[in-house]
Amino acid sequence: QQQEVIDELKNRLTSAPILTHPQDNVGFVLYTDASHFAFCAILSQSDNNGLKDVVEYASRSTKPVEQKYIIIELECTTIVWAVKKFHQYLYRFQFTIVTDHMALTYLNNMANLTSRM
């Protein structure tokens, strides 16, 4: 069963349409994730059926100084990097950021933020 899922994923990532053109009348969803090794982001929009269409993928390796960050700083830095990366799409529209790091939802309430956050 796992092999079937891997094969299906490979098929979907290599079959048309891999990417879609952005639509002006649809909001964007920006997915981000971070590790001590890399940042990644996916910019997407919903199609007419409510499914997410990928507009663009982005990733980069972390810099040596970033590898020393704690995970909340990495996740926050990834969001800033991704918003800057996709600025040409996002600056005119409302968009949603989706991250798997729950601590980021409490940033507004945290008292001791570092300068990186």
From TrEMBL:
Q: Which Gene3D superfamilies match?
A: 3.10.20.370
Q: Which domain of life is it from?
A: Eukaryota
Q: Which Pfam families has this protein been placed in?
A: RT_RNaseH_2
Residue runs in coiled coils: none
Query: Any idea where the Reverse transcriptase/retrotransposon-derived protein RNase H-like domain is?
Result: 1-97
* InterPro entries tied to this protein: DNA/RNA_pol_sf, RT_RNaseH_2
Q: Indicate what this protein is called per its UniProt record.
A: 13500_t:CDS:1
